[in-house]
Amino acid sequence: MSTAAAKITAVVRRIPPGKVATYGQVASLAGLPKNARQVGTVLKSLPDDSGVPWQRVVNSLGRISERDSSTFEGLQRFLLEGEGVVFSETDRIDLNEYRWQPKRRAKS
Known about the structure:
Layout: H1 3-14, E1 21-22, H2 23-29, H3 36-44, E2 57-58, H4 70-82, H5 95-98
Parallel strand pairs: 1-2
Helix pairs in contact: 2-3
Organism: Fuerstiella marisgermanici
InterPro entries: ATL_DNA_repair, MethylDNA_cys_MeTrfase_DNA-bd, MethylDNA_cys_MeTrfase_DNAb, WH-like_DNA-bd_sf
Keywords: DNA damage, Methyltransferase, Transferase
């Protein structure tokens, strides 16, 4: 796994159940600003048994990003709803309510 991929997965692992982060937010927290697409690429390539909660990453509109297969979109929604995340009638997540706001780590 590349250094960038390791940084991305480390951030995604910190997102708690019932919260989401955007691709851009993950990229920024991983020290890779303006690399939201790279976050998507890393998450797409994860093995099924990685344990990384990929489902907690959504696009900047609070929607599940479209994929080649709608199976994953349905699975992502199912997993998020199982964690208590609510979707609107237009299939959006209210980022004001569900966006993860990590606490800043104290600098040594």
